């Protein structure tokens, strides 16, 4: 199946710093990528949908100025958590669709801990 | 009301048991349905798609009831390795661009 690579796997940072997470589709072109956040024992919550070459669509309640998403190529999307605070600590995970396919291919996730 | 609802469990079953999970969805326009498996702190992995006629993959059987808006997953002859959280996923929207996840049902298979 298709492979999605996500880096870093985990990151610890000080409050107020920014953290960038990368999501790459390795063997296919991903026209659409999704970013999710998951708190312990909770469901994956969709944060935003990014389409290559256009602005991301954010879900209600997600601050677009805090969670910057860039999808500059068909194989790379990045999520930058700006001025991170402890409440941003969570498991962030990306997924990608291959063309107009229905199936999602997930990255391995990034555990963010903000001190 | 949540888009997708699941019983969080946990379901604690012995090896060899048969266990079933249900999931309900609120949007009648939902187009595609899936079961994913997620191990702790790992990414979800597609277990199987769910088709209207029902479908089977080895020990796993999925059913869809559009009239009642629920999906089920049946696991026969449970293995220890089946222990995980099972996520129900519903897809709809223009160009299949909306995927909604249930909160997951945790399964513990014990020796």
Describe this structure in words.
The complex is a heterodimer of chains A (115) and B (111). Chain A is globular, with a radius of gyration of 13 Å. The N and C termini of chain A lie far apart (37 Å). In chain A, strands 2, 4, 5, 6, 9, 10 and 11 form a seven-stranded mixed beta sheet that branches. Chain A has a four-stranded antiparallel beta sheet with strand order 1-3-8-7, with no helix packed on it. Chain A is mainly β. Helix content of chain A is 0%, strand content 55%. Chain B has 111 residues and is mainly beta. Chain B is built from no helices and eleven strands. Chain B has strands spanning 4-6, 11-14, 19-25, 32-38, 45-50, 55-57, 60-65, 70-75, 84-92, 98-101, 105-110. In chain B, a hairpin with a 4-residue loop joins strand 7 and strand 8 (70-75). Chain A binds chain B through residues 1, 6, 32, 34, 36, 41-44, 46, 49, 91, 93, 95, 97, 100, 102-104, 106-109, 111, and chain B through 8, 32, 34, 41-46, 49, 87, 89, 91, 95-97, 99-104.
């Amino acid at each position: 199946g298709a492979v999605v690579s996500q880096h870093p796997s985990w990151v610890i940072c000080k409050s107020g710093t920014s953290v960038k997470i990368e999501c790459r589709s390795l063997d296919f072109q991903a026209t659409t990528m999704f970013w999710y956040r998951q708190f312990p024992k909770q469901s994956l919550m969709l944060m935003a949908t990014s389409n290559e070459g256009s602005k991301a669509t954010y879900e209600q309640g997600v601050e677009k100025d805090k969670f910057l998403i860039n999808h500059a190529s068909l194989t790379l999307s990045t999520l930058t958590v700006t001025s991170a605070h402890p409440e941003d600590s969570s498991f962030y995970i990306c997924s990608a669709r291959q063309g107009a396919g229905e199936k999602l291919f997930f990255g391995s996730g990034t555990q963010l801990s903000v001190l | 009301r949540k888009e997708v609802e699941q019983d969080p469990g946990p379901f604690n079953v012995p090896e060899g048991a048969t266990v079933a999970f249900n999931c309900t969805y609120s949007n009648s326009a939902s187009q595609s349905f899936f079961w994913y498996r997620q191990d702790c702190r790992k990414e979800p992995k597609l277990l199987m798609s769910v088709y209207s006629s029902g479908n089977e993959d080895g020990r796993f059987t999925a059913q869809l009831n559009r009239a009642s808006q629920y999906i089920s997953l049946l696991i026969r002859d449970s293995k220890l390795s089946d222990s995980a959280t099972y996520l129900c996923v519903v897809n709809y929207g223009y160009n299949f661009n909306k995927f909604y996840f249930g909160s997951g049902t945790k399964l513990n298979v014990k020796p």
